[in-house]
Amino acid sequence: MRSRVSRASTRRRWVAIAAGTTLAVGAASASPGAATAAHAGAAAGPREYSCPIFPASNPLNQDISHAPVDPNSAQYIAAIGASGHLHADFGTDPSYGIPYTVVGPHQPRVPIRFTEFGEESNPGPYPIPPNAPVEGAGEEGDRHVLVLQKGTCKLYELYAARRSGAGWEAGSGATFNLRSNALRPEGWTSADAAGLPIFPLLVRYPEVQAGQIDHALRVTVEQTQRGYIHPAVHFASDSSDPSLPPMGLRLRLNAGYSLAGYHGEALVILRALKRYGLIVADNGSSWYITGAPDPRWNNEDLNQLKSVPGSAFQAVQTGPILHRG
User: 180 Cβ partners below 8 Å, 6+ apart?
Assistant: First the structure.
């Protein structure tokens, strides 16, 4: 479906900049019937595995269809690539996208050794099983591991993860309470460069199959500025160019962009982009939308996204740009 060289998962980390941790959950490896992909409507917010995927009031679940256009929208879109096109960085190939796994409340906790950003990582142990899927299906890259724990409704994410003894080692790690709107500390990264959780921003097959996505979607862009907008709390650039997008920037598909002719999985995603939009979460290939791999995806359906140009998007205002760190 897509060449390996065009993958968006090449991570950019800046050691001189404040770094941190985040966590995510999900599983292309989970059994098809495991996810409760039912959405109780936008008012209630998304729910899966009997857990809220953050409260309905969380910024990631915010309807931005009527948010004001950012005064710098044209410059941001030009910097990202107005002539570029959307790309589903996920599909049936297990080496594309970010997988997740779901565990029960009694999953044994194992030690985590941090190799890069331990001072900004939530300390272990984490309830990560030894067979948890690793992003890239064994290939090099960001090697995210995402675990959602049922019952506790906690999210655990690792970046640059590898098995180590009885547990794991990772560049960074973070935990999120899915019942809370609490942000990570200012200036901290997560398993993602923007300090955001990953799992809540993934395109996941069960929700698309149910016909509705009720949250923003994760997108990568090639270059970002040294700033972020909440709920992002971290930047991954040393550029002060104000025309570059900050981490946490929301991008909305224009209301007037015609969806006539689109169908199936792509149509569900495009409808969500008009209502919830994209959120800039990491540096990588521009306009690449992250999802979880799943053998049930229809790759031809997803390929329809490649016809949507960057010029069909607007940047919207959701808060001030912060430059801490």
Answer: 54, 55
